[in-house]
Design a protein that fits this description.
alpha/beta; 10 strands; 253 residues; 6-stranded mixed beta sheet
Length: 253
Amino acid sequence: MLPAESSGARAAVRIRGLHKRFGDTEVLKGIDLDIASGEVVSIIGRSGSGKSTLLRCINGLETLDVGELTVEGQTVQAHDAKSLRELRRRVGMIFQGFHLFPHLSVGRNVMLAPALVRNTPRAQAAREARELLSRVGLEHKFDAAPDQLSGGQQQRVAIARALAMQPSVLLCDEITSALDPELVGEVLRVIEALAQDGMTLAMVTHEMGFARRVSDRVVFMHEGRIHESGAPGDVFESPRTPELRQFLRHVQS
């Protein structure tokens, strides 16, 4: 399968010729990637291979030095503030850290962006926040402070907060890496449910079993390029290159 290929449906995200440099270091070296609407794509690879930078470019947190990015048919203009605002309404992102506002309740954390960005009335925002918290199993924590929650619960609130903006694409950047092992499963179950509901997902993850079970496609990045891409069974069982074989031996040992 070619790196840019998706499952054949209309591309929710289309990337062509993406290059990104930080100073003298070229981090992304010509990325071509399509993510179809409703597709779940896991991005794997060693630290420093460019995985997180790729997600940050898709979300507009990093500008593209060279290349083209299209989301839901709209080309993103990297240096146009209006274009980037529209991008961030379409693309949600969940980070390694939870980044909840400590002075706001759980419910207010989820309500904040719709109220500020979409001018959602307070009562409607509260109702939608309760529905989203119920979806991640935390409706009973609506009035709790973030520091009263476990790490896994805080990450589930962060997922609900991202969903509150009704994104068409959700990006997940190593969202379990800051969690104790016993809390990882509760977060992955929420993401798996989103995948089953048809959410378009692009996930940087080191959870290989989860990637294999949930993904429609796995993308292996190596030294700033998409090195291999294919169905989970093909990538994990029949890696074509020594770089991927070595990586899989390392993470599975």
